[in-house]
Design brief:
Blueprint lengths: L6 H8 L2 H7 L17 H6 L3 H10 L14 H8 L4 H12 L14 H7 L3 H9 L7
Length: 137
């Protein structure tokens, strides 16, 4: 496809957990990337697809700290493109519990905690800070 989405990537981005689960026995290629250089986890996190995130983290060896072409990890996408609400709070909990580095900064050196605070995402900021997140790298 022109946008580089495969069924695996599209299912992740759209939160189609059942479709992803159906693809697991075939051993999906976790190295494929979308047009932004992201894996299936990043857009799922951006959109707060909690069940999809849970499946990807628990049933695959997807890279929780993968950095896309924008210089963003799944945690940065949660904060920068999310709304700080309940789904994004849970997404934050899940990726941090799965070992996401709370201090992987964007290309400008801005950390997830700094982004969360600048966006007044109080609960997300607290979760990142509790996981060892700092304001500066």
């Amino acid at each position: 496809a022109a946008n580089a989405d495969t069924p695996w990537l599209l299912a992740g981005a759209r939160g189609r957990t059942e479709m992803l689960e159906a693809m697991l026995p075939a051993g999906p290629d976790l190295s494929i990337r979308n047009r932004f250089g992201g894996n299936a986890l990043i857009p799922a996190c951006e959109r707060g697809h909690v069940e999809t995130i849970r499946l990807l983290l628990s049933r695959t060896k997807i890279d929780v700290d993968h950095v896309n072409n924008l210089g963003w990890t799944c945690l940065l996408e949660i904060v920068i493109l999310g709304d700080g609400g309940p789904r994004h709070q849970e997404a934050t909990r899940l990726v941090l519990a799965a070992g996401a580095d709370p201090n992987l900064a964007d290309n400008q050196g801005v950390t997830p905690l700094a982004h969360a605070r600048s966006r007044a995402q109080t609960i997300v900021a607290r979760l990142i800070q509790q996981a060892g997140g700092r304001m500066v790298r």
